[in-house]
Design a protein that fits this description.
single chain, alpha/beta, Rossmann fold, 8 helices, 5 strands, globular, binds thymidine-5'-phosphate
């Protein structure tokens, strides 16, 4: 690798908090390479899509491992971009994997179990977590398997837990996490906040972070 590596930035949040819109804008504004998870085009991603659209049944453990596997499918490609000095933006990643699977409250699938297959993946240099207090009013939930208010409430609780545990146990998040409450804000306003946060987040060195 010659020169500075690119930055790996993650935008996380519940369904319908505007992640994809914001990632798309950011990739245009700041020239980021954009990676959306799950990526439904890969071999594993096609199976995930069948599950999400309720065309295929899988055990909770299996689908969890497939989501992780989908991240591993893209890992080398992302690493090569970063090595080449290109900034990358992720739309969902490991924390979605943990929050959605753990929200099912299946025996044995606690957060520790859920993290295992993601160990060794690149860790983002910055995680931006979008929250929206009025997501319940949002009539826009679609037909996919996790798109209902009750399940989203459970996911929200898990996200809260994940980030509070990580703050206590992992110093890393203290410097690499920003919560942005988008309640009542328009797309442009949120974009401005995010561009500001990302522009001010510089790397201290070229070392990569890993889970
Ligand atoms: P999407 O709506 O952002 O395409 O994501 C599809 C669904 O997959 C969404 O409800 C969140 C869920 N999900 C997981 O359950 N585990 C994961 O690891 C990821 C990335 C997403």
């Amino acid at each position: 690798m010659s020169g500075n590596r690119g930055r790996l930035i993650l935008i996380e949040g519940l369904d319908r908090t505007g992640k994809t819109t914001q990632c798309t804008l950011l990739s245009k504004d700041l020239n980021f390479e954009y990676y959306k998870f799950p990526n439904r085009e890969t071999p594993i991603g096609k199976i995930i899509n069948e599950y999400l659209t309720k065309n295929m049944k899988l055990s909770d453990q299996s689908i969890h491992l497939l989501f992780s596997s989908n991240r591993w499918e893209l890992q080398k490609i992302i690493k090569n971009k970063l090595d080449a000095g290109i900034d990358c933006i992720l739309d969902r990643y490991v924390y979605s994997g943990l929050a959605y699977s753990a929200a099912k409250n299946v025996e044995g699938m606690d957060l520790k179990w859920c993290l295992q297959p993601d160990i060794g993946l690149l860790k983002p240099d910055l995680t931006i977590f979008l929250t929206n207090d009025s997501y319940k009013d949002n009539k826009g939930f679609g037909e996919e398997i996790y798109e209902n208010t009750q399940f989203q409430d459970s996911v929200k609780e898990k996200f809260k837990k994940i980030f509070s545990i990580s703050f206590e146990e992992e110093e890393y998040l203290n410097y690499h996490f920003k919560n942005v409450n988008v309640t009542g804000l328009g797309i442009e306003e949120v974009n401005k906040i995010i561009v500001d946060i990302v522009s001010n987040h510089q790397l201290n060195n070229n070392e990569y972070l890993y889970y």
